[in-house]
Description:
alpha+beta, Beta Polymerase, domain 2, Poly(a)-polymerase, middle domain, Alpha-Beta Plaits, four-stranded antiparallel β-sheet, 42% helix
Amino acid sequence: xxxxxxxxxxxxxxxxxxxxxxxxxxxxxxxxxxxxxxxxxxxxxxxxxxxxxxxxxxxxxxxxxxxxxxxxxxxxxxxxxxxxxxxxxxxxxxxxxxxxxxxxxxxxxxxxxxxxxxxxxxxxxxxxxxxxxxxxxxxxxxxxxxxxxxxxxxxxxxxxxxxxxxxxxxxxxxxxxxxxxxxxxxxxxxxxxxxxxxxxxxxxxxxxxxxxxxxxxxxxxxxxxxxxxxxxxxxxxxxxxxxxxxxxxxxxxxxxxxxxxxxxxxxxxxxxxxxxxxxxxxxxxxxxxxxxxxxxxxxxxxxxxxxxxxxxxxxxxxxxxxxxxxxxxxxxxxxxxxxxxxxxxxxxxxxxxxxxxxxxxxxxxxxxxxxxxxxxxxxxxxxxxxxxxxxxxxxxxxxxxxxxxxxxxxxxxxxxxxxxxxxxxxxxxxxxxxxxxxxxxxxxxxxxx
Length: 449
């Protein structure tokens, strides 16, 4: 047995559910399906019950105790009625469940130790006729069930465990990584885990796969996997370029030096304020941190808005001459937009070059605009008019501490949170945030692929 095979065998033993867990799952699904069937029987329409997801296909990881059940209603069901029926069935089958909202409401709760999502959808003929995004899911499930052998299911579990270990698993908008469905399609495409790693190690994005040869060309993403059940969709659309690159990096590492380590996910130990100050001193940089109460929205809304806000602030700091080095965002009870700067103070004047003097109309207009003002100049430099005029903000604190912060591109809910009040920390004062964001700072100051 090769060293790679030995690692794969050990990891597979660890992540494969044992028979007791499988039996517990079967029992829970049977009991819950019975409850749902009884609840559907009381409705004025029929509803087909389908178990979907990794637990349906035998590709879930040990202790990943999720059950996904869909109730498929006739396609001519009014949208409002579908939502009402779905919630009614969910509340009856899971009395302690809570309501969540994706494209339409569904219920989520706990049953016999398993986390359950109970989702209504339309029972359409094929995935190209969907009326809501979740309508595709039963087709995904049917496609994979027909093709996944027990051996491939083992390799899917290995690939999922690997992606979890390197931090690239999950299609949520916080992670922007590989979904379970995408993971399974890639294992199918290559015929196994090791073959997939060897292929990914040599990818040259954009990389394109089209399992059913649909021929769709209208995607511009680093990784394109045409949905075999719907030619209009790229299954990998949510994958961020860094997660595609992350898979490549760690695939090469694992193939070159097989180890169990990449399959184990662990947060770094948090660092304290003294460690943050030591890093800043070593780097010779100045951080600015905008801290505010985290908006009460789901992660799939929150993290795109945090990234948009961070990019907006960093771009404005760059435009103003403060030269951002790197930036990050994190959220708990409070959220932080953290930007590390190479420049912490600029002169109170800035140089502004006008047109060449020989471009008479524009040059005269420039000269007249500044001739009687309080700017230095106009004077001549290399045949151009030049002035040195007052800089609006000479420190990042001046820029971010006033109304100017609301002129940058911010996420809607982030902007509202800032309007309610925020804390601005500049320089070593930002180190005090280690009490709240010590893990995020540990990742930031000890970056890895």
